[in-house]
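2024-03-11 09:14:02 INFO queue: dequeued item 3-dehydroquinate dehydratase, len=143
2024-03-11 09:14:02 INFO validating residues
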Amino acid sequence: MNILVIHGPNMNLLGKRDKTIYGTYTLEYIDELLYNRAKEYGMKLDIFQSNIEGEIINKLHQSLENNIKGIVINPGAYTHYSLAIRDALEILNIPIVEVHISNIYAREDFRKKSVIAPVCTGQISGFGIYSYILALEALYMMI
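2024-03-11 09:14:37 INFO prediction written
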């Protein structure tokens, strides 16, 4: 079962970003947790991080040809305005889970709107790095 995990902009700076919001864990640590859980579920992960919108879109397009069965995506700030990422997700006919480390609904007003969520199967936010694990578990149960 091939699963694509996409980390959006600034996720590569986890551990250095505002620790009161994002915690102290690094992206490498999150990826390690995901690989370990995926192994338990018999999943194969393709994990990708980019700060560039077009690279994320290209990766989503590639998933059409790479037998990807589900996607976990943290679009970062693109959550709130990237219609291009939204459109790339919308054409996929697989389960997609949008994730956020922080509770975007308890933050600034501009973060409370996701243009991505309407084309996703579901959204998980506010559980810290475990939002990713919950998303992977949800995909496991759905696929």
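2024-03-11 09:14:37 INFO annotate: The mean pLDDT is 96.
2024-03-11 09:14:38 INFO item closed
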